[in-house]
């Protein structure tokens, strides 16, 4: 068969992802805070874009007018009144209040702790476990070599407070004997927080027990010889081995449960991440009102300077004109993309509120099964668009703050022929477990039977899956004898 080249005409359709379309898709799935960062960056890079300051300017003008009005005298007669200060005036004046108001002392005095500024407002750096341990190391009487080994040990303590290196590794780095490293580690075990520098859970709990002055107690015996049986809750077996009553074992187990298995986490670097709602839902009478949260989002416009230059027909350099036209198209497309994004989010939120009205009125038990296709068909958009809109966005409702993805879940048929959302089933399992007797917790099979009594027919393995998704232990793990 001969190979030849020839031309052929073919008619086809394909989707071309232009940069503008890619930008619109990217903006659609950003949260409000992420969108603020993108807009701020674009304002810095694109001179055509401008932020409208009309509201702030008008507010400043009102404040200025009010200040001028207050500064004007009430009448012409009061404009040039002479102030007379005689001896009577000096006697009547409250000098204590005057001096208190003009107190320029170096340190402020507070009569009450409530008047003091918040400690978090003046804290410049969050302390770490490493800094706390090094501070104690510098305060302890260590020799030069001991301080070097101690610093190496502290550098190998993780954020949970455990020593994650071996004695031989530290000894080879510092060029000392392992016994020398172990002696320094024993002194670091006395540092705060109790249990820091341990090599495993057993040693961590033992250090805390011994720092409480409970050496050679029943707690130390259990940790040394019966920790595995304690994890399996074999209290009677431990009682026989220790030749004590079961009640003593239960009391000791309750005490050990109060110890901290991760002593370093109080110095953890995890900052609290606050969620800012993108959508607010308010109830006004019998209707729900959807409001987009645009707080902090700049109000964009085209810079009037460049619009005037364009109308005046100034002659620009070819490169400059191309640059201005490119930035102009980018600015106009960004403004249109943000407006389209806001309209799409509003439509999706309105549709979700319409489908989940019973949930908003009565709670999680009435959450309906919902899929992306239902909302897509309701507002006439594609499912992929709905998926992007509901990514990393939160809705503040009368029932609380929820991620938009929360409202989309599968349905489970009930004995009455209806469907119930999987989240509602999870909530029902959680309520049953919370109300159970901790001495006799329900098995997964029993949970399935109790759900069947509420017309929710699901298999035992489904109950197990939902229970694990809720981070609820099995019946043996939930069993409590004390």
Detailed description of the structure:
With 482 residues, the chain is of the alpha+beta class. Among the domains are: 130-267, RNA polymerase sigma-54 factor, core-binding domain (Arc Repressor Mutant, subunit A, Orthogonal Bundle), CATH 1.10.10; 279-407, no CATH class; 411-478, Arc Repressor Mutant, subunit A (Orthogonal Bundle). It is built from 24 helices and 8 strands. The strands form 3 sheets. A 4-stranded mixed β-sheet has the order 3-2-5-6, with helices on one face. A two-stranded antiparallel ribbon has the order 1-4. Strands 7-8 form a two-stranded antiparallel sheet. A hairpin with a 2-residue loop joins strand 5 and strand 6. The protein is extended and about 90 Å long.
Q: How would you classify the quaternary structure?
A: single chain
- Helical content band: 40-55%
> How many strands appear in the DSSP assignment?
8
**Low-confidence segments:** 76-86, 102-107
Distance between the termini: 86 Å
Alpha-carbon Rg, integer: 35 Å
Strand arrangement within the widest β-sheet reads: 3-2-5-6
Shape: extended
Overall pLDDT level: 81
Please state the second-level CATH architecture of the domain at 130-267: Orthogonal Bundle
Main sheet record: 4 strands, mixed
**Count of helix runs:** 24
- Broad structural category: alpha+beta
CATH topology of the domain at 130-267: Arc Repressor Mutant, subunit A
CATH superfamily of the domain at 130-267: RNA polymerase sigma-54 factor, core-binding domain
Strand content: 5-15%
